[in-house]
Every structure is written in structure tokens, then in C-alpha cells.
Amino acid sequence: TKIEFKATVIGKKIYVCGGYTGKEYLNLLEVFDCETNSWSELAPMQNMRKEHGMTTLNDHIYVAGGRDGSNTKLSSVLKYSPQTNTWTEVKAMNEGREDHELVTLDGYIYAIAGYETNTVERYSPLIDKWGFVAPTHYQHYYFGATSHQNKIYVLSEGGFEVYHPESNVWEDLPSLDVANGLQLVSINDKLLALGAGVGDHKGKASKAVYQFDTTKNSWIHLPDMNVARKFYRAVVVN
Question: How far is the C-alpha of 97 from the C-alpha of 78, rounded, in Å?
Fold first, then answer.
């Protein structure tokens, strides 16, 4: 069993990195090939991490922050090249983060909130530099975040908000009564919240799926998933 890992996608492949077995931290990088329906192991990270952030930009994978084997909160950032199966270290974030999310938008990577912080940093690969942008309104950790319609949406137990990059402003939106541990994805121009525990099921694994209608600023309850989930990863493969 593996928890507190992260996942991202390049092409038809899903990459899963780091995590915690309940006894030890992991530095493993594994890939699932959707076309061959098979898993394989790739070059491990230089250090073990859990509760980190992970995303894809320009066909490279970025892993940022988390905690290492000595339980130290990290600010360091690693870049993985699938072409060479190698890791390199890039510019570190300005602060250590855990239980945060990395989201890619318009050629930048955003490191969003995390445990005990609501700050947000943006990374430019062109100049290898992180800089702060507007902080979130709410405390978010173990939350869902994704880019959708050229904005960044964040949903957690703390609240629901959207970031407008052109104005550097976070806007509050109507939230769900959810527990931390859900996932937020953008698929076929729809914004979905998956495994969102609500009402009597708050805090427990959930099958619930909701869609946010950005034109009406309201949530729609969709058919449930087959399996209840919590603290997992949801990815979209084109």
C-alpha cells in the first residue's frame, strides 16, 4: 500500500512518484503505459519524498517540496527528463511546502498553499526562478487543484476559489461541504470534483462526483464512482 504519492501525465503514460508505505518514505518513480497496460520502474529521485507536489511542463516532470526521509520540510525542486531517464535539480521554492499542489498554466508552474501556509509561488523555466503571486483566501492542504479555461481552481475543506492570472486575483466561489482528500480535474471542458465526501460522509472515503458549472457558478451532482476514494490521485489521459 502506498499513500501520499503524486501522479502526472505525459502523452499516454501516467507517472507516479514518491509516497509513503506506512513504514518508509519512497523515492520511486514508476510509469504506467496506457497503450500496453503495463507498469515499469524508472530512475528514482535523489531523495525520498511524500506530501510533495508534481506536475508536467514541456514534456518534463517537476517535483517540488514535501517531506524527506528525515521528516524535513523541503523547498527543493527536481526536474525529470523522460528522454534521458534522469533527474536534475532546479531553483528551489522560496519556502518549504507540504500537502500543496503544483499546477501548470501558460508556461508557468504554480506551487499553491499547503499545510500551514496560503502563499502561492510561480516558477518560470525560462529564467529558472520562483516568485510570489497573490496568496489564496483560504487554508488548503490535501486539496484538489487544476487549470481550467485559463484559470486555476482550488477546492478543499477550507473553501473554493479561482485564480485569475491576468489580474493576479483570487475570487471566492460557491463551495461544496467537502472533506480534504478530494481531487479536481478538467476534462472535455468540464470541471469535476472527484471523491468529495459530503454531509454524513464528510471525512470518509467517497464515491461522489460533482461538476462545477462555470456559467451558472453552481455545482451539479453526477453519477458516483464505483469505488469510494480518499487521498488518492486523479489524472486525465487524452
Answer: 14
At 200 the three-state DSSP class reads helix
Cβ contact 18:26 at 8 Å: yes
Residues near 193 by Cβ (< 8 Å), separated by ≥ 6?
A: 144, 155, 176, 178, 182, 183, 184, 208, 209, 210, 211, 212, 219
142: closest CA among 163, 116, 121, 122?
116
Which among 187, 184, 115 is positioned nearest to 153, based on CA atoms? 184
In angstroms, what is the C-alpha Rg of the chain? 17
Q: State pLDDT tens for residues 178-199.
A: 888 899 999 999 999 998 776 5
Measured in Å, how far apart are the chain's first and last C-alpha atoms? Answer: 27
At a CB cut-off of 8 Å and minimum separation 6, what does 116 contact? Answer: 139, 141
Q: pTM of the entire structure?
A: 0.96
Strand-by-strand arrangement of the 60-64 sheet: 53-57, 60-64, 77-81, 86-90
